[in-house]
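Q: I'm writing up a methods section and want to include an example of the input and output format. Could you take the sequence below and give the corresponding predicted structure tokens, formatted cleanly so I can copy it straight into the document?
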Amino acid sequence: MSLYLVTGGAGFIGSHLVEALLKRGDQVRVVDNFSTGKRENVPAGVDVIEGDLADDGVAVRAVVGCDYVLHQAAIPSVPRSVKDPLGTHRANVDGTMQLLVASRDAGVKRLVFAGSSSTYGNSAVLPKREDMRPSPITPYALQKYIGEQYCQLFTSLYGLETVTTRYFNVFGPRQAPDSPYSGVISLFIKALLAGQSPLIHGDGRQTRDFTYVANVVDGVLRAATAEGVSGEVINVATGGRISLLELVRAVQLILGSDKAPTFDPPREGDVKDSQADIFKARKMLGYDPSVPFEDGLRQTVAWFKTLSV
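A: Here is the clean output for your methods example:
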């Protein structure tokens, strides 16, 4: 039985990883500073270390005895990084460095780093392939790219096995509906459930590779133990793309709402289109997204309805 450390394990994606690991019988430890994570997301009996990975000693305590580290802890917000580049750098870069050093020194078998499709920037080339030249246009995107570069450096220089899984617009239950930095799907659902107009930044024709969280969990767990992938960067997504206008229509259909969206100017740092090439994930991880967008959206809407009961 392996011991997995899930950083940010009280957060959206992290808590789903914890749940999946426990379900298959692994031991799990969580480290989280609870700045955005919620205590109720962590199942009873899980070993929890409360602390900030950027603080001295927290990462060292967290990795003791761990076989694998799934590094999800971050401030995953483009707008927030634009407003607060120093604070997000501390969380997204300094915390990652502390964890890499601690994992190296503790003899961790492998660290899987949560990368981001924002690293690709605003390139018009679709789909986004891992061998494309990175072109980050926001502090968050650059911070995530720095993190994956440090991971590859620790693999080549120190022999610590690392894999970066690049996420594309992950959504699902437990995604915070109460923050201005929440994912667009949670914000659209929240608005329509309240009988309000969903707000679109831009004309709504921008497209995203919306990926249900269960697919991401599958990809990350495969990346933790797959052979021959150390040092790799791998897209974990669906390989499709949907416009925000299509997304609004889909949520309206599920909820039986005809509330039309309103529009604001585009946000600084938002990319126009995003779509993953998942050939590498299929080839190296045996990954195939098992939950279609429509099914994931229905499950997400059903969860949000329980919050309003």
